[in-house]
Amino acid sequence: MKTPDEEPIEKISKALDVSFTPSEVETTNKEIKKQVREIKAKKLDVDFAAARTNMKELINNGMNALDGIMKVAEASDSPRAYEVTALLLKTISEMNKDLIGIHEKNANIQKEKVTNITNNSIYVGSTTDLQNLINRERAQDKHDGN
Q: Residue range 132-137: average pLDDT?
C-alpha cells in the first residue's frame, strides 16, 4: 500500500515523465546541530567583515568631510562652522571606538566557540588494583616479592 507521501511524488514524476526514487536520508541530531553552527559561524564572519568595512568607509568619508568643513571654518571664521567641525571630530572618534568595539565583540564570540569536552571515566575495582595499574613498578615488586 502506498503512503500518502508517495502519491504526489508519483503524480509529479508521471507528469514530468521522469523517474524519482526517494532515498532515505539519515542525519543525526548532532550532525544537524554541527551544520547549523557552521552556517552561523560563516554568517557571523560575513557580518563582521561587512560591519568592519562599513565602519572604515564611514570613517574615511568623515575624514574627507572634515577637510572640507575645516576649509569652510577657516574661510568664514564663523563660530558655528567650528562647532560643526568639533562635532564631526567627536563623531569620527566615536566611530573609531565602535570599530575597536566590533573587534572586541568578535574576539569574545570566537572565544565562546571553543568548547571544552570532559570525558568522565569510571573504574570498577579495588583501590589496590587501581594503584597497581597506575604504578606498574609497585605491582611488579609486589608480584616478585610473593
A: 79
Q: Which domains are delineated in the chain?
A: 28-113 (1.10.287.1060)
**pTM, 2 dp:** 0.52
Q: For the chain, what is the mean pLDDT?
A: 82
Locus of grid cell 502519491 = 7
As given in the structure block, the three cell numbers for residue 4 are 500518502
Mean pLDDT of 65-71: 91
